[in-house]
Write a structure and sequence with these properties.
Zn(2+) binds at residues 76, 111, 114. This protein is 28% helix and 21% strand. The chain has 153 residues and is of the alpha+beta class. The termini are far apart. The chain binds zinc ion.
Length: 153
């Protein structure tokens, strides 16, 4: 099983269904996202999130959530990861997948702001891998944000 074939973008997979089957590349991406989570700066929420973008040329860009006392200036893990990839010159056509992970009891899905950002910076069907280490959902931005706002560039 790998993110480029075989996943149903709206189906949640549970440990017994995916742990043994997951593609090594996807597992590596998830592991890197969990490593990024350890660096979370989240003293206000104590809610740690990690993310990792993988390019088609096997470059990795991690991100974690960085909070701020003003709260509104907090930046999410997935935005930090994809901004880093773009900062290094990569664009949507170069990105293979993104993993977004948390330690919560339920799957953590991207907030509305992140969905809007991902809708512009990812290809529509780029795999978005969500996991808390127990459940796994592989989806894409078409399913996370249908009818998103965009300008013709
Ligand atoms: Zn967000």
């Amino acid at each position: 099983m790998n993110t480029n074939s075989g996943y149903n973008p709206n189906k949640k997979y549970f440990n017994s269904e995916w742990l043994d089957k997951i593609d090594k590349r996807d597992q590596s991406l998830i592991n890197r996202a969990f490593n990024a989570l350890k660096n979370s700066y989240s003293p206000y929420s104590n809610f740690r999130v990690g993310a990792c973008v993988e390019t088609k040329t096997n470059e990795y860009f991690i991100g974690t959530n960085i909070e701020n006392a003003s709260l509104g200036l907090t930046n999410c893990a997935e935005r930090n990861a994809i901004f880093s990839a773009y900062s290094h010159g990569y664009r949507k056509k170069d990105i293979r997948a993104i993993a977004i992970v948390s330690e919560d009891k339920k799957l953590t899905t991207p907030c509305g702001a992140c969905r809007q950002v991902l809708s512009e910076l990812l290809e529509p069907t780029c795999p978005i891998i969500l996991t808390n280490g127990k459940e796994l959902l592989v989806t894409d931005i078409i399913h996370l944000l249908p009818l998103s706002f965009s300008l013709d560039l």
